Amino acid sequence: VCGSGDDGGADNHASGDIPANQAIELVIEKAEAGFLRMDLWYPESGRLDLQIERPNGMTLGPYSAPYGHSAVADQNLGDIFIGHRVKDVDCFEATSDRRELLIDFSGGAGTYTLTLTNTTNESIPFHATLNPSTFGNTNRFSSFVVAGHSINDYTSAEEAITPTDYVVKNEWTDLNGNFRDITEQGEDGELWLGSSAGPTHDGRRGVDFATPGEVCFAAYQPDTWYHNASANLVQGGNGLYGIQNAVSAAAPLSTGIIALMLEANPTLTPTQIKDILQQSSEGDGFTGTVPNPVWGYGKLNALKALERAAQPLSIAETAHLPLSVSPNPFRDMLHLSFDPSQLQIQEIVVWDVQGGRCHEHRSPQTHHIMLTHLKPGFYWLEIRTDQVNWIEKMVKIP
User: Fold this and answer.
1) Which of 203, 247, 321, 395 could lock onto 3 through a cystine, CB 3.0 to 4.6 A?
2) From CA 161, how far away is CA 297, in angstroms rounded?
3) In this structure, are strands 98-105 and 13-18 parallel, antiparallel, or unpaired?
4) In angstroms, what CA-CA distances link 103 with 64, 65, 66?
5) 3-state secondary structure 196-226
6) Residue (of 41, 45, 114) closest to 84 by Cα position
7) pLDDT tens digits along 42-88
């Protein structure tokens, strides 16, 4: 599980096409001194030569694109580092078939103009992002700007489960009884203003769903930076719980829901989990029509996800059997309803969520199963018959 990222600036993504044998100017407004990274991707078959104009008008370059499939054309210019790599340099036999032009600016603020020259006979599409470029600062592109595409590289992998973050509450009372409030982060129900958005550079939606992240309460590790700031600690938490926000809260919350899903059904695969989380999400007046690249499939309904995860393992096989079990949830006894002339029960087994066998019953034609020795929790009931095995998730309550 990877959060979508917190680079939700309005102008932090630039995208376009550079015509064959022509040049474009990609303009970056660096709002403050310090570190700023531009990360640009384009097809492996392309060639982009680079020239940089500093805020004082000084021109650097041009620097030629690397040739071959394992070449490097890096430049260290002091307060500007240029990393120009082909697909096989950092990740051998990469499947993305793209080149990377990465530029780190560590000098003063001002306007930096990048001239990108296409030296091939084909048009070259590109995608570029800035980091940091959030709602909290004004680092931005001022040419070729497009919305979206700000999702972090590490969470745009095809099999990643990617939550974004929405606001549930912006206020709390700290350990000392002081009222606290985070402002300008979005209002209750809205997407957190720093949330990054899809689609990915190759056109996939990117974001799967949204979970609460602004503001949540979570356990704190003692003697950490956050724990030592009393304003972060929440009243009633005995100094052990404090605020957690942004996608840094949305991701672990999502991971906890997945842990509960696996407790209910340990056979789930990552693909099944991702599908259940998507299908258990819901749109509302804030999300608009879902799915979309900003909210994914909408706000995650954790209870619905757990109910979907706990469905019988073999619905298609068991639906036609002349057999029913009740009640569910149960306390001490299960009642089996079936016609012995139509169905022959061979064995009954109860499994816990870790896959441990915790009860066996070998009286084939019984209609009652006593389970007083089991603790409250989730279990799998397997009834082996002369036709197929009947499997269903059961819940024992106190």
Assistant:
1) 247
2) 12
3) unpaired
4) 14, 14, 15
5) CCCCCCCCCCCCCEEEEEECEEEECCCCCCC
6) 41
7) 999 999 999 999 999 999 999 999 987 778 899 999 999 999 998 87
Contact 340, 346 (CB under 8 A): no
Contacts of 125 (CB under 8 A, 6+ apart): 15, 16, 17, 18, 42, 43
d(CA 283, CA 295): 9
Tokens standing for 126? 């590109």
Please count the CA atoms within 13 angstroms of the CA of 339 that sit on its side-chain side: 4
**Which positions ≥6 away from 15 have C-beta within 8 Å?**
125, 126, 127, 128, 144, 146, 149
Task: Supply 111's token pair.
Answer: 């306007």
Torsion sign across C-alpha atoms 199, 200, 206, 210: negative
Q: CB atoms < 10 A from the CB of 100, how many?
A: 19
Whole-prediction pTM: 0.67
Evaluate whether 126 touches 16 at the Cβ level (below 8 Å).
yes
Are the C-beta atoms of residues 14 and 125 closer than 8 Å to each other? no
- Per the structure block, which two tokens stand in for 109? 């603020």
CB 17 within 8 A of CB 125: yes
β-pairing, 163-167 with 80-85? unpaired
pLDDT at residue number 321: 67
284's tokens: 């509302």
- Residue closest to 161 by CA, chosen among 215, 96, 210, 128: 210
* Distance spanning both ends of the chain, measured CA to CA: 33
Alpha helices, DSSP H, located in the chain: 87-90, 247-264, 270-279, 302-309, 315-318
Residue 326, both tokens: 């009740």
As a residue count, the chain comes to 398
Is the omega angle on the peptide bond into residue 340 within 30 degrees of 0, that is, cis? Answer: no
- pLDDT per position as a tens digit, 318-363: 445 678 889 999 999 999 888 888 878 888 888 887 667 788 877 6
List, as own/partner pairs, every contact residues 388-392 make where C-beta atoms lie below 8 angstroms and the sequence separation is at least 24, other chains included: 388/314, 388/317, 388/318, 388/321, 389/314, 389/317, 390/314, 390/318, 390/321, 390/323, 391/312, 391/313, 391/314, 391/318, 392/312, 392/318, 392/325, 392/328
